[in-house]
């Protein structure tokens, strides 16, 4: 179940003001490097429209609970499920569905997570929906990289960025994880490293032989700060999937292996040997 307590504070304030003034756009692009706040904010908005409580959205009424648990007929989510692309086959049925009038409320909501993975054909199918929505619909694309979204798609959305919140929350989390302020400063912008680790994570679950190659690539000239970040980010991805009840058994197994890697590093086992252990035992 989605927890919209993770929604961005500034972003929800902006959207609530638009809602109260009846100025909600029909399409948004949420740029969130971690995508956690982005997806939570998207669900928060759907709850805002449908909540039957007094303090909207309260997250506890029947309508909010149905939305957050993925059981509302007017709210749809498409994500990559760890795959490298989002195909037209995943977009086409939703496009057809969202041409219909809302079943219960006065809006339908179409969320696309990992929107940077949309294929060209999927992008083209989506364009028609963004240009001329047949029914009252709010389409929200959530991505970790605005530059990987086609300009024709970007131009048809209102862009909301979660960058600043990501930087502040990431620094706090890394300090709590055990990195020093100097190590965090040394890391600088972590976007490319996050993406590399995410690819490794996906390849692990696909049992792709490229995982071992990527492990070696990550280990090349990796500073201590980067080594710590790799394991931190792998654990973060695991926790995100557990929160969404994705691949629970496999994710739990990977977390156990990551804990073992922590013990190995404490015993001065090299970074590359820890990664080898992780890949070969998963």
Automatic annotation (TrEMBL):
Top-rank EC class of the record's enzyme: transferase
GO terms for MF: DNA-directed DNA polymerase activity
InterPro entries: DNA_Rep/Repair_Clamp_Loader, P-loop_NTPase
Keyword S-adenosyl-L-methionine: no
Keyword Protein biosynthesis on entry: no
A Pfam family recorded for this sequence: DNA_pol3_delta2
EC number: 2.7.7.7
UniProt keyword list: Nucleotidyltransferase, Transferase
Protein name: DNA polymerase III delta subunit
Organism for this UniProt entry: Lactobacillus hominis DSM 23910 = CRBIP 24.179
């Amino acid at each position: 179940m989605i927890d919209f307590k993770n929604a961005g504070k500034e972003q929800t304030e902006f959207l609530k003001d638009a809602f109260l003034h009846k100025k909600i756009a029909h399409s948004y692009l949420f740029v969130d490097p971690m995508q956690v706040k982005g997806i939570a904010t998207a669900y928060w908005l759907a709850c805002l429209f449908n909540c039957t409580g007094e303090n909207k959205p309260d997250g506890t009424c029947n309508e909010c609970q149905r939305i957050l648990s993925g059981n509302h007929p007017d709210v749809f989510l498409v994500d990559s499920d760890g795959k490298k692309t989002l195909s037209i086959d995943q977009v086409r049925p939703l496009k057809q569905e969202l041409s219909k009038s809302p079943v219960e409320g006065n809006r339908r909501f179409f969320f696309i997570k990992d929107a940077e993975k949309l294929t060209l054909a999927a992008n083209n199918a989506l364009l028609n929906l963004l240009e001329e929505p047949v029914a009252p619909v709010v389409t929200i694309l959530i991505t970790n990289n605005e530059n990987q979204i086609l300009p024709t798609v970007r131009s048809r959305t209102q862009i909301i960025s979660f960058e600043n919140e990501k930087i502040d929350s990431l620094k706090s989390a890394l300090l709590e994880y055990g990195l020093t302020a100097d190590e965090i400063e040394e890391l600088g912008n972590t976007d490319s490293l996050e993406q590399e680790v995410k690819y490794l994570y996906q390849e692990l679950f696909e049992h792709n032989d490229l995982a071992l190659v990527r492990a070696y690539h990550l280990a090349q000239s990796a500073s201590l700060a980067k080594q710590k970040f790799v394991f931190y980010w792998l654990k973060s991805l695991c926790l995100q999937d557990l929160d969404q009840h994705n691949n629970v058994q496999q994710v739990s197994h990977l977390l156990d292996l990551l804990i073992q890697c922590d013990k190995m590093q404490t015993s001065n086992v090299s970074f590359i040997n820890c990664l080898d252990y992780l890949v070969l035992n998963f």
